[in-house]
Fold:
Amino acid sequence: PNVTYICPDGEREEVEVPVGTSIMKAAVSHGIESIVGDCGGSASCATCHVYVESHLEKLPPKTVNEDEMLSDAASEVLPNSRLGCQVVMRDDLASLVVRVAPEQW
Ligand code: FES
Structure:
């Protein structure tokens, strides 16, 4: 399934993300530098902050931990804010669009 990342500079990158892979990991391995993923995906750094622009209702709800980490995020937190490492690809999330938060630190 494909994911479109809208980077802070306005560039759009479309990436094929294998089912079971987080959208943070896929971004990092495709050189999308606006997603940092400093903690490696354990929901403890908030440097993988994205705004989910499609399919938001299909995503599993945020855990308490994700919510707490997001409250420390460097960029403004919006209702569609998620940690990219906690969004794991599924077939029904094909064509997901996420906007990468402008600041991750
Ligand atoms: Fe650290 Fe997502 S990679 S919170």
In short: Strands lie at 2-6, 12-16, 49-52, 81-83, 96-100. The domain at 2-100 is CATH 3.10.20.30 (Ubiquitin-like (UB roll)).
